[in-house]
Amino acid sequence: MMQSETALGQVLTTVDVVVLTLVDGVLNVVLVQRERAPFAGVWALPGGYIHAQEDADAHASAARVLRSKGGIEDAYLEQLATFTGPARDPRGWSVAISYCALIPQQKLPAQRPGLKLVPVAATGQLPFDHAQILQAALARVRSKSQYSSLPVHFFGESFTLPQLQQVYESILGEPLNKVSFRRKMDELGMLEPVPGEMQAGGAHRPAQLHRVRPEFRQQLALSARGL
User: What residues does the Nudix hydrolase domain cover (predicted)?
Assistant: First the structure.
């Protein structure tokens, strides 16, 4: 005889989002202060329940959570992993569909109450299994930065190639050969120069500003070989 849904018990279904940005070349994560139990008042990753009558899919849930919990819009957003089990949430057996979001610092709301940026190496103890989710996001970003255009989503409209190389180096934690890096960017085919736009370089000659081609603003350019 099949068990009823009531007998089986309810499973909590949520989304949790790791929002990453760069502050002075250092990876930071967005934390929000929880308003309700469990862990009321504790800083955590933005997250919330899936609204079955409102959200078209989990991606829509994650985007809604970012808007409502952090005032964050227009972030690059991709699904990360699913975390499940009876012990990850004190309210009971739960499923959390996690996402990773990248956004330029200037697109984050300024001085929003209940939101802060913290270097990823200095988050301290996080509630639930958010530390595990954060580590999964960092591993994903570092891995995909080896062979894709992922780091461009830390920038706004335009940037120079030296600035882009610095971001790749910050994420990967190692210096990159300038010639090899630029060859890789050419292979990815994701960038185009901004006509007539240069950035003054102080003692150096002005550098050409680049931007992401429209077709790559919401998807990644991929390479068969890593950096």
Answer: 15-110
With contact defined as beta carbons under 8 Å apart, do 138 and 27 qualify?
yes
Tell the burial category of 202 from Cβ atoms under 10 Å away from its Cβ (0-12, 13-18, 19+).
exposed
Closest by Cα among 196, 76, 95, 210 to 148: 76
* Residues 140 and 165 occupy one common structural domain: no
pTM of the model: 0.90
pLDDT given at position 175:
95
For 66-111, what is each residue's pLDDT tens digit? 999 999 999 999 999 999 999 999 999 999 999 999 999 999 998 8
Q: Quick check: is 1 in a domain?
A: no
In a domain, 119, yes or no: yes
Are β-strands 26-33 and 12-23 bridged in parallel, bridged antiparallel, or unpaired?
Answer: antiparallel
For residues 67 and 168, state if they share a domain: no
Q: Which of 124, 144, 164 corresponds to the end of one domain?
A: 144
